[in-house]
Amino acid sequence: MRTEIRLYRRLTWLLLLLCCSGASSGWCATPQAAMQGAGQNPNLEAARLRLTEARKKQPPVAAVANYLATADLAGRLGGTLSGAEANEARLIYNSACQEVAVLLRSSAELWNRTETIVSPNGTYRLRFNRGSHNDGKWDPGYFESVRTPTQVHEKIAYQEARINDWGGVLVGVYRPADPRKYFLPRVGVACAVTAILDFSSSGTAAAGTREVTLSLYDPTRRSEVRLAGIQHPLAADFAAPLAYYPEPKFLGLMSMMHDRNLMCNPRTWIRFSMG
User: Fold this and answer.
1) pTM
2) For residues 255 and 100, what is the distance between their CA atoms, to the nearest angstrom?
């Protein structure tokens, strides 16, 4: 019996010695060290915090500055992360593009003008892409307003889902001075729009200034976009423009048309007059 007790004591001391030796050699990690090793990407955390800051009540220019910084940070991370972090970076970028486009369109002094914006992350020279029908881009001056799918009270399911898509999905509303003259609905014509912020280093502006171009893509004509040298699927919501219209019978009419290329073509409305 005494021999067994001595053996147990020796084994206990041996185990303690091995644990101490392993800890001093780095074999055993403390819980704090393990948490640090699994810590989240600091740039992703910065992008998340910057988006939160942009959504706070503040002057439009200050909010735009935070949105640009958010999209810049998240966009750079798009090609460097994987898994859940890459998906979060994409969603942050998309939200920044969507929300800043709505904010800019609601500010007459900022929309469709070249502006220098100073943000916590640096200085940006913001430009608007004039758009080209052949290039699948809308002219910023074409729309009276742009809204998010939530703002148009989307009432029908998505017609198409694009996986790992990039860009802020929007509804652009085109309303001519005399819509009845062209057999257009009084509320205007709603179109699918995807906002993209494309960043690049400036070769002519002051040192440290980054060029950023806001483009309004027509997802019925484009399915991909190139960001930071990487080709990405372009986000799209083809159901949201239908939800803009107040008449349920009109939603059915447009759904039966199926051809998304007709939805924003005023000549289409000559055939389908709203009585």
Assistant:
1) 0.75
2) 30
